[in-house]
Amino acid sequence: NAGVTQTPKFQVLKTGQSMTLQCAQDMNHNSMYWYRQDPGMGLRLIYYSASEGTTDKGEVPNGYNVSRLNKREFSLRLESAAPSQTSVYFCASSAGTAFRTDTQYFGPGTRLTVL
Amino acid sequence: AQKVTQAQTEISVVEKEDVTLDCVYETRDTTYYLFWYKQPPSGELVFLIRRNSFDEQNEISGRYSWNFQKSTSSFNFTITASQVVDSAVYFCALSVLNSGGYQKVTFGIGTKLQVIP
Questions:
Q1: Chain B within 8 Å of A96 (Cβ-Cβ)?
Q2: 3-state secondary structure at position A83
Q3: A38 interfaces chain B, CB cutoff of 8 Å
Q4: Of A42, A102, A108, which has the smallest distance from its Cβ to B109's Cβ?
């Protein structure tokens, strides 16, 4: 099992460009999450999907959109990148549901730089 | 609101020393989970341990041990006989079920551990 995979691993964008970060998990997990990690701020939740077909905003959703394509895949889109979105992005998945919490397992991360 | 405090931002120890990483949490929920994750220089986040709020038993796994004390809202992590491979950033995290039906995880800002050979 690959666990949680993310593509790309690195990306450099110019201000205003768009891109989609891909995430897939092979653990048959219900829940998937997108976080960003910035120095001194820990991880902050951008969007989550509690189950296939549902998505909701987390703490810092502005400037992002997501799609839960199926149970395996959860993508994060930047429509018009800004330098403030320079960060490391992590995707995570969990067997947890709306009624039960569980461990979140993380992908390897995408390091994004917006010039 | 939930909060996780890791007061030690950076720690340096000499190889084979023992080191304890502190974690203090705040929550009004009676049901919650606590986690420790390791982030080595390569950048990935590696799950180490999970504890639920009803299980205060300490746990030992090899050189790693965890001390969970609800009375002081602490979940500390000790590495015995540290090794260079233990050099990483360690995150403590608190998870509760949000009223919106998802698992809200609050992370501390991390403790960077450097083990010097």
A1: yes
A2: helix
A3: no
A4: A42
Q: Give yes or no for residue A57 having a pLDDT over 70.
A: yes
**Which residue's structure tokens are 């608190």?**
B94
8 Å CB contact between B34 and B51: yes
Cα separation, A99 vs A62, whole angstroms: 27
Which of B97, B100, B105 is opposite residue A104, by nearest beta carbon?
B105
Which residue's structure tokens are 């891109």? Answer: A19
Alpha carbon distance B31, B14 (integer Å):
38
Is A2 a residue whose pLDDT tops 70?
A: yes
Question: Which pLDDT score, from 0 to 100, does residue B101 have?
Answer: 64
The answer on pLDDT for A97 being more than 80 is no
Closest chain B C-alpha to A89 CA, distance in angstroms: 11
